[in-house]
Every structure is written in C-alpha cells, then in structure tokens.
Amino acid sequence: MSAIDASEPKPDPTTTGEASTGHPSGKDLRQGDPGKHGVTLYQPEPVEISTRMRPGEWTEESLNALVGSYREKLLDMGASASEIEIETERDEDGGVSVVVTWIKSPVTDAHQDSGDGII
Hints:
The protein has 119 residues and is of the alpha+beta class. The chain is built from three helices and five strands, in the order ααβββαββ. It is elongated, with a radius of gyration of 22 Å.
C-alpha cells in the first residue's frame, strides 16, 4: 500500500481551465446563447421509450401505431431516423415488449469542437 504524499503539488484549476468551465479538460461544454434560452449541456446518453403489454392488450395494428408514435416523439425531440433503434420482443405467452431508443452521437454536428478548445 502506498502512502499519499501531501506535499505533492496539485494541479491549479485556474491554469487548467477547470475553474472557469467546471470541466477537467477546460472545455466549455455549455451550449446556447445564455441571453436567449439559457445555457444547456448536451447530453449524449440514449433516450429510451419502452412499454410491456400483456396478451390481449394489443394487436399487430395497435403495436405498429404505438411503435410509430414512439418514433415520432423521438424525431420531434431532434433524433434523426438513423439514430433510432426499434426493438419488439414477443414472449411465449403472447405479450410484447417495445423499446424505441434514440442512440445519440457523442457530439452532434452543432456541438463539434472547432479545434481551438471552444465548442
């Protein structure tokens, strides 16, 4: 087991950029015009809409309508068609599970780093 050396200097957040941006890389990950809509933080985590229906609660027609409505909701939220994954799983008893997921890219075109450390 190694001892922690308290005399070892720690990085100065004022020189690394972390103090001003809150991010260890020093990059400002906030997006938007604070004067208009406030500052937002791009969230690359997937967005998922899902449900489980028991036997007798659904038909092929209602299932297709439900999947289509979930897909439309994600498109309305900004997903592109290529970022949407649809999974339907039927069980042995006649139930069905539906998962519609927006797999967001790590960085959207509007949020790409220009190379100068400013997004």
